[in-house]
Amino acid sequence: VGGTFIFAEGLLYFLFMSAWLNIFLGIKYGFLTRILIGIFGIIFGIWRFKDFLTWKPGVCKVVDSSKSQEKIIERMKNILKPAAVPATILGVILLAFGVNLVEFLCSAGFPVIYTRILALQNLGTIQYYLYLFFYNILYMLDDLIVFGLAFFAFNRFGFSDKYNKYSTLVAGLLIFILGILMIFKPELLTFAQ
After folding, report:
1. For residue 37, with 0-12 CB atoms within 10 Å meaning exposed, 13-18 middle and 19 or more buried, which class applies?
2. Which residue has the higher pLDDT, 37 or 22?
């Protein structure tokens, strides 16, 4: 069930990133797009850094975490009740899509900047999608590790909130730096000529 959830999550992000990549590749005003994405990165980085400084338990401040967590847990319990495996799998996939759409605002920074940097490269179509696939494999690998640790130890030792707090700081700083580079030094983000 956890693996299905993570697979559906990775598929959703791959679809979002594919759409962004195609938009960025199709836009004729590359300079303006680069500046706007850079500004987005700076603002998003500041927002995540502010979340770190005003940290309260909870992964994402877009929705009321206590109410949304209760709803998600309740939905998970309801999904796991059916005896039919296909209904359970379909329910988990729909739940993964729903959860990721809600949490999308908290995690959109890296995928948007990554796909914009990727669009700046002079690559073939297959190479673009291989880079997206590679990103999503690492994205899912991280989630699998966190899922595995949560399953065995997080609730027992209380690491999850500390992990979320400091990953918010690291993500905010990296996205902020990428936003600055996108505006002022885009050549540093070019890796394929």
Report:
1. buried
2. 22
DSSP string, 166-191: HHHHHHHHHHHHHHHHHHH-GGGG--
pTM strictly above 0.90: no
**Cβ atoms within 10 Å, residue 61:** 17
Identify the residue whose tokens are 């996205």.
175
SS3 93: helix
Give the separation between CA 165 and CA 177, rounded to whole angstroms: 19
Q: How far is CA 115 from the centre of its chain?
A: 12
68 pLDDT higher than 80: no
| Contact in structure between 92 and 8 (CB atoms under 8 Å) | yes
Contacts of 23 (CB under 8 A, 6+ apart): none
93-123 per-position pLDDT tens digit: 777 776 666 666 666 777 888 888 888 888 8
Phi, psi of 108 (to 5 degrees): -75, -20
Nearest alpha carbon to residue 1 among 101, 93, 68: 93
